[in-house]
Amino acid sequence: MKITDYEKVQALAASNIFLLDGPNGTKTIAADALAKALIGLLSSKDFIGGVNLSELTQINELVSDFSATSEELLASINSISEAIDGITLASNDSAAGTTNIAQKTVSIVNESSEVMKSAKVAEQSAEELRKNVDNFKIGE
Question: Is 59 left (phi over 0), alpha (psi -120 to 50) or beta?
């Protein structure tokens, strides 16, 4: 019985040895060269009749090492992703704070403008009052 290359690839994919979840539902092949080397090794002989026990042991050790390395890589990628999420949240909070400061600054400018208008009106009223007071002379 000979196992086809397709079945070998399916067996590797089903064991999650080299497929990692990527952004937007994509799959990423980790250590692509090692995966290709394993597939090449598996497809180079009749998997049942042509492989001796020591080769199977070596393949098993390679696959186990590769699986452990892939799990560590996935954990690292997840940690990086979580760190990026934290940075994104902090950045969003910072942007919200900056927007709030900008809105308050605009409000202060508008209120300052109103204060300036009121001050000009008060100055004009004071000037008019001085003119009116000058019209009255207190007798000698």
Answer: alpha
CA distance 126 to 92: 50
Q: Is the pTM of this model over 0.70?
A: no
In eight-state DSSP terms, residue 24 is: G
- Interval 53-81: pLDDT, tens: 676 677 778 888 888 888 888 889 888 98
> Distance between CA 9 and CA 38 in Å, rounded?
10
Strand, helix or coil for residue 49: coil
Please report, to the nearest 10 degrees, the dihedral formed by the alpha carbons of residues 77, 83, 89, 92 taken in order: -90
Taking only Cα atoms into account, the Rg of the chain, rounded to an integer number of angstroms, comes to 39
Query: Counting beta carbons within 10 angstroms of the beta carbon of residue 3, is it exposed (0 to 12), middle (13 to 18) or buried (19 or more)?
Result: middle
CA distances from 89 to 93, 94, 96, 102 (A): 6, 9, 11, 20
